[in-house]
Each structure stands twice: as C-alpha cells, then as structure tokens.
Amino acid sequence: MKYHTQNRRTDRRNQRGPATFTCRHCRRTIDAAALGTGHRNHCPYCLWSRHVDETPGDRASTCGGLMEPIAIWVKHDGEWSIVHRCGTCGHLKPNRIAGDDSDWALMALAARALSNPPIPID
C-alpha cells in the first residue's frame, strides 16, 4: 500500500507541466509558480485564463478555450476571486487571485461594473 501512495504522489508531480507558459491572450511568458495559490490558473498581467481544470489543479478539462476575466467576487472572508467565462463553452469559474497579479488589472476589472452598469442609472 505504501508503494501505491508513493506512485500517486509521483503521478501528480508529473501532471504539473512546465515551469513557464505563454499567455494565449497577451503573449507574455508566465512563471507557472503563483504566489498565494498552489495552481497558477491565469495570467498575472491581463488576468485571462485557459479552461484546463475541472477542479483546481487537475488539468482534466478537454475544452481548452480562453477564459475572459469578467468580474471580481469578494468572498465572505474578504478574499478576492476573479470570475472567468470560457469563450468556447461558456463555463463560469471563480479563481483565487495570486500575490503577483497586476493591481491595475484587478482594480480595472473591479471598476468595470461601475463604468458600465447592467441597469440604467438616472
């Protein structure tokens, strides 16, 4: 049984992928290690993501579509998450922000609702 547990750990390490990747939206080279989260799932510059996970870190999704950052969600404990929408299948998914995400990009996303409200303001 101990051997089996060791094998699963090795399998998970092998699934992690490369140390860097290229953002499919802004084309910057991104370090796969993220500050404050175990699984980098979006570009720290433009905040776009790619639909690769069913659950965080599993890389099990077959969609692979680009996921646009559409909103900021502030959880009950005050932690911010980015809400992404897949441009291919429409899947909505919140993702924790990372410590190296652009402050400007996060604030612009948070302010988007104020600059373009979904209801008329008189």
Overall structural domain count: 1
Largest sheet: 4 strands, antiparallel
Helical stretch tally: 2
Net shape? globular
> What is the oligomeric state here?
single chain
Order of helices and strands: HEEEEEEH
What is the averaged pLDDT score?
Answer: 81
Fraction of helical residues? 10-25%
Which structural traits does this protein have?
globular; 6 strands; 22% helix; two-stranded antiparallel ribbon; disordered N terminus
In short:
With 122 residues, the chain is of the alpha+beta class.
Question: Helices, strands, pairings?
Answer:
Elements: H1 2-15, E1 20-22, E2 29-31, E3 49-50, E4 66-74, E5 80-86, E6 92-96, H2 103-115
Antiparallel strand pairs: 1-2, 3-4, 4-5, 5-6
Task: Write structural notes for this entry.
The protein starts with a helix and ends in a 7-residue tail after the last helix. The protein contains two helices and six strands; from the N terminus they run αββββββα. Strands 3-4-5-6 form a four-stranded antiparallel beta sheet, covered by helices on one side. A two-stranded antiparallel sheet has the order 1-2. By secondary structure, the protein is of the alpha+beta class. It has one domain. It has helices at residues 2-15, 103-115; strands at residues 20-22, 29-31, 49-50, 66-74, 80-86, 92-96. Mean pLDDT is 81; it is low at 1-14. The longest helix is centred in the first third of the chain and has 14 residues, at 2-15.
